[in-house]
Design a protein that fits this description.
Helix content is 28%, strand content 23%. By secondary structure, the protein is an alpha+beta fold. The protein has a domain of 179 residues. The strands form 2 sheets. It has a 5-stranded antiparallel sheet. Strands 1-2-3 form a 3-stranded antiparallel sheet, with no helix packed on it. The protein is globular.
Length: 282
């Protein structure tokens, strides 16, 4: 964050100020001794919450006018359908759902997200999947077993799943990995969604929901997975944060906002990407 008056980074937070678009962070610059209201989206009249909401409403099957009305009702603002249209054009490069939206609107009603909340080790998880995308990408026996696996969770998790105490995120496994850094569209989607978060506890669900609704590749979030070894009478369990299908490959994404700060030797997770034939293991 830089001072909007002099460009200095020697600034501190100085409470919040109420504007006609909601409460926003107020900053004070120690160099020029002037205050200013921070903005996560410079040169935008409305904040990221409003824009994220409007775009998501539209991609859930609403018209431009309906999306504007729903957003206005939620945030007590007065945006027009032309504003929603403009935001969709600006986000076209990262919100790739527009490629398949006409097909979805034609063949499906607005009940396109299937959701089920269940508990695992006393923690609540909100499993969701995008019905049209799952059927489009897994149709014609292409990853059909994956589609069957995901749809089974509409009835909840198997009873034994909650009895597995060992979680993937807590299991230490010595494994050699090749670390690569790449800033791709998933990073761009997550980065934009994070701008709409006021507190850290919102980040996980906000990123998952935004990608599930506005990305053409994301098919499900918080998907339960487990492995059971009969000979050892033990197993490990966990959840896939984000599941994608791109270029006839299955991608498993784990949302870790501070991953770049982690020491490689202290990692306890195995990351799987671009795995072919994963449906054969389900």
């Amino acid at each position: 964050m830089k001072c909007s008056n002099c460009g200095s980074q020697n600034i501190i937070k100085k409470g919040r100020r109420k504007t006609k678009f909601g409460f926003r962070q107020f900053y004070y610059c120690k160099d020029c001794e002037k205050g200013f209201i921070g903005s996560k989206l410079p040169h935008k009249t409305y904040g990221p919450k409003v824009i994220v909401s409007a775009v998501s409403y539209y991609n859930l099957g609403n018209t431009l006018e309906e999306s504007a009305k729903l957003t206005n009702r939620r945030f007590k603002v007065k945006i027009s359908k032309s504003s929603v249209s403009q935001w969709l054009k600006e986000l076209k490069n990262i919100c790739t759902y527009y490629k398949i939206r006409p097909q979805v609107v034609k063949n499906y009603d607005q009940a396109i997200l299937i959701s089920k909340t269940f508990k695992h080790n006393d923690l609540a998880y909100n499993f969701k999947y995008h019905k049209p995308k799952l059927e489009i990408f897994c149709g014609n026996n292409n990853f059909s077993s994956l589609a069957t696996y995901i749809k089974k969770f509409e009835k909840g998790c198997p009873e034994f799943f909650n009895d597995i105490e060992n979680r993937c995120s807590q299991t230490k496994i010595e494994v050699g990995i090749k670390k690569e850094s790449r800033y791709n569209n998933a990073c761009r989607l997550a980065g934009f969604a994070l701008k709409s978060c006021d507190i850290n506890s919102q980040r996980h669900s906000v990123v998952e929901n935004f990608m599930l609704v506005n990305d053409s590749s994301t098919i499900a979030c918080e998907v339960p997975v487990w492995f059971w070894e009969k000979n050892l009478d033990m197993g490990i369990s966990g959840h896939i944060d984000i599941l994608q299908i791109r270029s006839n490959k299955i991608y498993v994404l784990d949302f870790k906002p501070n991953a770049f700060r982690e020491n490689e030797q202290k990692r306890t997770k195995i990351y799987f990407t671009a795995r072919r034939g994963i449906e054969d293991r389900i």
